Amino acid sequence: MPPKPTAPPAARSSEESTRPPTRTNPYRRLFALPGTRAFTAGNLIARLPQGMFGVSAVVMIAGVRGSYALAGAVTATGLAATAVTAPWVARLVDRYGQARVAVPATVCAVLGSLALVLCVRGGAPDWTLFAAYAATATTPNTGGMSRARWAHLLKGDSEALHTANSFEQAADELCYMLGPVLAAFLTGTFFPEAGTLVAAVLLLTGVLVFAAQRSTEPPPRRRTPAKAPLRAPGMPAQLAVCLAMGAVFGAMEVVTVAFADAQGHRPAAGVALGLQAAGSCVAGLVYGLVRPAGPARRRLPWCVAAMTVMMTLPLLAASLTGSLVLLSAALLVAGTATAPTMVTNMTLVQERSPEGRLNEGMTLAVTGLLGGIGCGSAAGGWVVEHVSPTAGYAVPVGAAALALLISLAGLAFTRRSVRPAGH
């Protein structure tokens, strides 16, 4: 006899109706969480200037002072100061909370940017430019703080966190793609200081909007573990991977500019590099739609291997054809391997950072990337200068291969030293 409709089936149907459908777009489910749209909007506004400050400072200093060497030295000093200051700021964020630390740190950075503008425009001694730009090193790692919020909100949901990390990587690529373009437009259309001033306003506005979303902020940890992220199991190898991957990006940028300049089309280098970032941005969004197979520590070597193979495409396009158009197409395809690799890498950084020191761990990863960018730029520039721009494309391939070797060594080490959970 067929069962009668009773309350339990109704209750079950009501319970099932509250569950998100399995085919729902993961990004739609992600931003259905309360407060996520607001903090993401503020974070994107604050993150866009990261791709603007360097270009704006170079154009402003070189345009007013007439020295690219001075402009390059000032921005290099800023990167060095950031490498020292950023982990310290991140440690304070973990200990006292994002809002309490990020806002005053941003105010200090904005004041440094304004001081730079005044010093450049007012004809102050060169040393004041270095001091002013070094003050901008207190800029908080907004991307890391956003990832920390997702890790807090999605704790225990690895699939949703994978989607969130994929979105954040796509956002990084988008901001670094649009930032230099916006900076070049502002400095070229209005006046040399316009890019720095607009970037400072965007940074302060975005951080204020982001910090105001207190409901999604991870709770501060006044008593953090004694073990620093740098000493956590697997983290040294992970940061070494970040350093090598940063060298890929730094070398690719310098070599592409030199290659385009050798052909008399230097402005086209921005388009070519923008296509690489666009490929990575799209790949990041698509990667967030798929379910990752296996743990991140096993996926990383495969991702880095794919990135190594993809980085040979620009080398082949430059050496076999010499065509800037085909090189741009190769960079677009090569960029599709960047986001999955970076997403997997940041997932591992999140997993290996000690509890209560997540912002510090992710900021160390960003610091490693910045250091690698500097090393890659220097290596790529040396090869371009002493061999040829075409040969320079071998540097990103070598850096990616080095990242692959480090990731394989790290995987072998963790297999020996870390037991699976439950054993």
Automatic annotation (TrEMBL):
- Highest rank taxon of the organism: Bacteria
Give the residue spans that cross the bilayer: 68-89, 101-120, 197-216, 237-259, 271-290, 326-349, 361-384, 390-413
Keyword vocabulary terms for this entry: Membrane, Transmembrane, Transmembrane helix
Annotated SUPFAM superfamilies: MFS general substrate transporter
Q: Does the keyword Acetylation apply?
A: no
Disordered: annotated segments? 1-26
Can the keyword Chaperone be found in this entry's annotation?
Answer: no
Protein's UniProt name: MFS transporter
Q: What is the lineage of its organism?
A: Bacteria, Bacillati, Actinomycetota, Actinomycetes, Kitasatosporales
